[in-house]
Amino acid sequence: MLEGNRVSRISVRGFAVASATAVTTVGAVVGVAAGGEQSSTDPSYEATAADSTLLADIPAGQQAVAQTASLTQQADVQSTAADAEAKKSAEEAARKQAAKDAKAKKLAAEKAAAEAKAAKEREEAKKKLAASRSATRDAGSFAQQASYTIAEVQSMARQIVPADQFQCFSNIVNHESGWNYKATNSSSGAYGLVQALPGSKMASAGADWRTNPATQIKWGLNYMNERYHSPCGAWSFWQANHYY
Fold first, then answer.
1. What is the rounded CA–CA span in Å between residue 15 and residue 66?
2. In which band, very low, low, confident or very high, does the pLDDT at 41 lie, cut at 50, 70 and 90?
3. What are the CA-CA distances from residue 205 to residues 42, 194, 200, 216 (Å)?
4. Has residue 44 got a pLDDT over 60?
5. Cα→Cα distances 113→15, 123, 174, 184, Å
6. Direct distance between the N- and C-terminal alpha carbons of the chain, in angstroms, rounded to an integer
7. Which residues have C-beta within 8 Å of that of residue 233, sequence separation ≥ 6?
């Protein structure tokens, strides 16, 4: 059995110190065997050898325990580092996902708000258009006359065409017929205030389409609404194409 002081040295220095000392001592012995300058009679060598513990001096069982403890400690350190890194990665991933979710939620809310606003605007525009398309007075409510002046025809138009659309309607009539309800295009056959082609189309608004400006105005308003959504829509088209 080995002496107690050797076992105590192992427990104090640890396996790593014992191993390093042993390697140093073995190197010295090998150097002597190879004929090196340092010899066993060298005082420094003797001091080193006296203070060294060879692996052979460590009981085999304690060598295994020391090695196992060292490996276990290394594994624990590595495991702790790995856990810390995994936790950090998980936290970073959670942060990024939370930011992504928040952004998606914000975009969804903004989109919903924009769609609601657009729907409201469309509804208001639809109501406004419906109001503007509706004649303010029925054409049949005007007493028929043998003839009408331009001023009389224009007055009838103001009472039939919605106020916000009258100027556009008037612009077209000015260009098409100059407010002459009997105007006839000799080459095309277009007839009346709005120059319907053929003039007989206006019969859908009344059988008196040839002589009644109110009937012509009613037909012209309906035509502009159906084809261009409003007299102003028709006027915009006319400005671009010089016909409607």
1. 6
2. low
3. 134, 13, 10, 7
4. no
5. 72, 15, 45, 54
6. 121
7. 224
